[in-house]
Amino acid sequence: MKAFYAQEQKRHDPKGFLSSGAPQPNPEQPERVERLLIGARDAGCSVVRPRDHGLGPIAAVHTPEYLDFLEHIYARWQRIAEASDEVIPNIHPLARDGRYPASAVGQAGYHMADTACPISGETWESVRWSAWSAVDAADAVLAGDRAAYALCRPPGHHAFADVAGGFCFLNNSAVAAQRFLSNASRVVILDIDLHHGNGTQGIFYQRSDVLTVSIHADPVRFYPFFWGHADERGEGPGLGYNLNLPLERKSGDADFLAALDVAFRRIRAYAPDALVVALGLDAFEGDPFGGLSVSTSGFARMGAAIAGLGLPTAIVHEGGYLCDALSDNLTSFLTGFGATGKL
Ligand SMILES: [Zn+2]
Fold first, then answer.
1. What stretches of 30-169 adopt beta strand conformation (E)?
2. 188-201 b/e with 16+ CB inside 10 Å = b?
3. Could you tell me the distance, in angstroms and rounded to a whole number, from the CA of residue 153 to the centre of ligand 1?
4. DSSP 36-48
5. From 64's CA, which of 1, 80, 124, 297 has a CA 20 to 30 Å away?
6. What distance in angstroms lies between residue 103's CA and the mean position of ligand 1's atoms?
7. Can 229 be counted among the known catalytic residues?
8. Taken in order 142, 276, 259, 206, is the CA torsion positive or negative?
9. So what's the pLDDT on residue 343?
10. Does the predicted model carry a pTM greater than 0.90?
11. Which residues of the chain are modeled with pLDDT < 70?
């Protein structure tokens, strides 16, 4: 299996964020890339540099004003007297029906959901290459590969069409799904990250051409809090095309695999042409976020089960943070996925 990754994706190096109001080191560290590269290579992947696809496939998912903001906000921020080095918001609109602000501070609040995605001088370059890795994974599958892996870092599933959040800027899984639609009429995004894929849900909430399914720790007491509940089913033409399967905190392999079975019934009924797996490894029992209790071998069983759908698949990396087993968990998932012989 090809693994797409460009070294520019490591340059984004966020320093901090607020957790329960307290300044903490930002866990979305460049070192994640080194661990994930080891994991991908140990699973037999060949690492391939993605192409520069320009903004076209990214603008198919994100708004022009948001992309303009991401490209230019760091330079604008540096002109503010006594501003922080990284762009971090401190005021947000309560709803999105107010005026679009002209000021850098106002726009930061408009386009950033929380403090977890500081923007530095390297962020714009890193997030574009991360998205292009997702584009090339989809293109490899469109060209005939049964599956491809995109080592997307920075991750993407908390990013809405015009909002960054939760370490995410560009929604790589959504970009891959949209790319698939160039030669498919129905695509599924199956999100198995610890956290609900709220940005992905938001992007496709009123559409039926992308079925969004997310299995995650119950947001009633967990990030992203405001989304991810079981009664969120889509709106308008998208009604019935969003499925949330929240799990109780500390749920383990058996509960996760049971939720996957529920997801598979919905996915098979949808009869999709292609699948995007939004692969977070932070459901791991030893992940610093500590929300669920999936084991390393559990990821292999999840990979094998998902491969059993027999769909052309782009595996797009999301979360999973620094811990001793991060490499092994990726190897486990990818090996399990390939072990069915369907690759
Ligand atoms: Zn996560």
1. 46-48, 147-150
2. bbbbbbbbbbbbbb
3. 12
4. HHHHHHHTTPEEE
5. 80
6. 31
7. no
8. negative
9. 47
10. yes
11. 339-343
